[in-house]
Amino acid sequence: MSVGALAGSGAARSRSQVVETCMSDHSDRFLRIGRVLERTGLSRSTLYRKVEAGAFPKQIALSERCVGWRESAVEEWMRNPKFYSVGDAG
Fold first, then answer.
1. Is the pLDDT of residue 63 over 50?
2. What are the C-alpha distances in Å from 60 to residues 8, 28, 56, 69?
3. pTM check: above 0.70
4. For residues 50 and 53, what is the distance between their CA atoms, to the nearest angstrom?
5. Counting Cβ atoms within 10 Å, is residue 36 exposed (0-12), middle (13-18) or buried (19+)?
6. Mean of the pLDDT values across residues 47-71?
7. Cα separation of 73 and 86, whole Å?
8. Residues 62, 30 contacting (CB under 8 angstroms)
9. Are 74 and 36 in contact (CB under 8 A)?
10. Considering the chain, what percentage of its residues have pLDDT values greater than 70?
11. Domain limits of the chain?
């Protein structure tokens, strides 16, 4: 649905409110390693061991020397860390 269609839907919202709503519904931030470790309480070695075993979401290459994790994937893992499996995600 376009911003124009949402704005013209009869609701008394400004264009910026419509754009903000659209972005918040579909945004998924990338978390860098420090933030992931902070949120999960895992050590760096345990995190990478879990990634390798398929028990934690895989990192995504953001550039040649930079990786991150989708915030939604980390949150999904945090809901059930003991039984999480990469095959169950998504």
1. yes
2. 38, 13, 13, 6
3. no
4. 5
5. buried
6. 97
7. 10
8. yes
9. yes
10. 67
11. 1-27, 32-88
Q: How far is CA 1 from CA 5, 51, 80, in A?
A: 6, 36, 33
Separation between Cα atoms, residue 38 and residue 43, nearest integer Å? 9
Alpha carbon 45 to chain centroid, angstroms: 21
For residue 6, the model assigns a pLDDT of 47
Q: Pseudo-torsion of CA 59, 67, 40, 26, nearest 10°?
A: -80
Mean pLDDT, the chain, whole residue set:
81
Q: Can you tell me the distance from the alpha carbon of 84 to that of 34, in angstroms, rounded to the nearest whole number?
A: 21
Residue in the structure block whose two tokens are 């839907």 = 9
pLDDT digits (tens, 9 = 90+) for 3-40: 444 445 455 555 544 444 444 445 699 999 999 999 99
